Amino acid sequence: MSYKNSEKLYKKGQKHLVGAVNSPVRAFASVGGNPLFIESAKGTKITDVDGNKYIDLVLSYGPMILGHRNKKVEKAIKKALKNGYTFGASTKNEIKLAKIVCDAFPGMDKVRFVSSGTEAVLSALRLARAYTGKDKIIKFSGCYHGHSDALLVAAGSGLATLSIPGSKGVPKGAVKNTLIAEYNNLESVKKHIENHKDIAAIIIEPVGGNMGVVIPQDGFLNELKELAKANDILLIADEVMTGFRSKFGGAQELFNVEADITCLGKVIGGGFPVGAYGARNEIMEMVAPLGGMYQAGTLSGNPIAMASGIATLLELKEQNPYGKFNEIGEEIENYLLKSAKKYNVDLVVNRYGSMINPFFTSKKVTDFKSAQTSDTSKFGVFFWEMIRNGVFLPPSQFEAWFLSSELSDKDLEKIEKAIDKAMCSVSGNL
Ligand SMILES: *Cc1c(COP(=O)(O)O)cnc(C)c1O
């Protein structure tokens, strides 16, 4: 396998792009080597600029849940293109996508479309503050909610609990209202509520996806909701990653919990930039033009993106791949564990619908701290052996692998063969 063309582009790209990437997760910083440059993708496969073909378990970090270039989605996009790209005025399809989304989430009467997950979440926070008249928020260590200032804390450091910014350039003032709790630990939330009277919202990934996959323990989300309600705090479910993923109604449907505000992204645009936040009427009526909370966007509700989102969600509804995701996920999980046992490698696997994550540790992974017990150097070895055997994974221990509804038995066989080789390689036996 040659990566010559990728290497060339990587060198060339560094002149005018920062690290030759437009999002740091695409750099191969934690696995070593150069990032791959992609030429094209179709179905379950992605092809790099050297002509190497991989089964794609990155799927653009989630959006391509139907696989690449689904026929119906592509047809809808082409049709939309013919009518023009953007108008700065409303279109019929915005209403159509709004209905599909509001029908999927019982706590959502109205929705506002934006252009990214980051934008959805930062707007949801502003809305929670506008509605409650309070300033503070609670977020969980290890949860990622986009790159807005107030939320760039505890996305990965031991300084997190002190609310010290996790990124340079974030002023102290921007995070002074951000309180950090521990995932799956209700007591850590209660403590903040006892100590602070002015908490507007608790924001959570209902299934953690940005510290590797971390599942909420039995009752955690429901108890969180009760706690929030009893203290006039809004619960914000950041379902940018989990929305439409294990159930059409996201993690909230699966765990039977209803958030006050829901944030969406990724799948909702089917590969185009769409984010959304929604809630019941009395909350959404705070948003301009109905209310005094301002939020706007030149390309919000973009016609091409709306067409792609509608076609993707309708196709998801029709295919209803959620049973299949569970079956494939379970098979990959079992195979990973079997293979780890065969080569005597410590491994824990977490899984939620079409998201799956192996951690190279013997500890149960239930929060950010336990996720960090994973041996990332082993992951680096595993990652490259998977690449050499034709499976494209996210280049980080702490990113979920994503499954598409197009995965075939043949793909699965190939994935399992690659896992066997990669695990062997991790154990030092290859
Ligand atoms: C990806 C993600 C975001 C940010 O979305 P962008 O479209 O990258 O801005 C926010 N929250 C969660 C849970 C995510 O997974």
From TrEMBL:
It is found in: Cytoplasm. One of its GO terms (cellular component) is cytoplasm. The modification N6-(pyridoxal phosphate)lysine is found at residue 266. One of its GO terms (biological process) is protoporphyrinogen IX biosynthetic process. Pathway: Porphyrin-containing compound metabolism; protoporphyrin-IX biosynthesis; 5-aminolevulinate from L-glutamyl-tRNA(Glu): step 2/2. It catalyses: (S)-4-amino-5-oxopentanoate = 5-aminolevulinate. CDD domains: OAT_like. Its cofactor is pyridoxal 5'-phosphate. Pfam families: Aminotran_3 (PF00202). Keywords: Cytoplasm, Isomerase, Porphyrin biosynthesis, Pyridoxal phosphate. Its EC number is 5.4.3.8. InterPro entries: 4pyrrol_synth_GluAld_NH2Trfase, Aminotrans_3, PyrdxlP-dep_Trfase, PyrdxlP-dep_Trfase_major, PyrdxlP-dep_Trfase_small. GO terms for molecular function: glutamate-1-semialdehyde 2,1-aminomutase activity; pyridoxal phosphate binding; transaminase activity. Transmembrane segments: none annotated. Its main location: cytoplasm. Belongs to the class-III pyridoxal-phosphate-dependent aminotransferase family. HemL subfamily. Homodimer. This is Glutamate-1-semialdehyde 2,1-aminomutase. It comes from Urechidicola croceus.
